[in-house]
Amino acid sequence: MIVGYAIPGFLFAILLIVLFAGGTYWDLFPLRGLTSPDFDQLSAWGKVKDYFWHITLPVIAASIGSFATLTMLTKNSFLDEIHKQYVITARAKGADERRVLYGHVFRNAMLIIIAGLPSAMIGIFFTGALLIEVIFSLDGLGLLGFEAVMQRDYPVIFGTLFLYTVIGLILKLISDLTYVWVDPRIDFSTRES
C-alpha cells in the first residue's frame, strides 16, 4: 500500500522533468542538485533565490503527488458516506441538499479522513521523498535511510527511523486534536484505559 502512495509523485516528477527541466520543451529549472556550481560566489539573496530555484520542481512533484493520493482518499470517504442510511433519511425529511452535504456528510466523511491522515501522510511523504530525491539527485532523509539500509549502517538506520517515528507521533497528536475540534462529541479524556 505504501508503494501506491509514491506512484503519483513519481509520475508527476517525470512529467515535470520532461516539461520544465529536460530541455525538451522549456528549460526553466535545473535538472539535478540542490545548488548551482557557483553557489559560494553568490550574495545572500542570490543564494536564497538559487536554492528556491533548485527546490521548486521537487517540492511541486511531492505536493501534487500527495494531493492526488489524499484526493482519492477523500473522494472514497465521501462516496461511502453519501450512500449511508442517515443521508437518505435526511433527504426524505426534506432537508435541502446543502444542509445534507455540509451538515451531515462533510462532518462524518472528514472524521475518516482525519483519522487516517497521519498514516497516509507518512506513507505519502517518506515513500515519495525517496523516489523524488533519486530522480532530482537530492541528498535527503529518504535517500540517506535507503543507503543506510543497503550499507547496513545501523546507527543511521536507527536515527532515520527515530525521526520518522517522532514525525509520525506529532502527526498523530495533531490528528487527535483536530478530530476533537471537528466533532466535539468525541472526548478522549473520558476514555477508560
TrEMBL record:
The keyword Ribosomal protein does not apply. Residues 1-175 form the ABC transmembrane type-1 domain. It comes from the Bacteria. It is found in: Cell membrane. The keyword Membrane applies. PROSITE patterns: ABC_TM1. Keywords: Cell membrane, Membrane, Transmembrane, Transmembrane helix, Transport. It is a multi-pass membrane protein. Its main location: membrane. The chain crosses the membrane at residues 7-26, 51-74, 109-136, 156-182. Belongs to the binding-protein-dependent transport system permease family. This is ABC transmembrane type-1 domain-containing protein. It comes from Vreelandella olivaria.
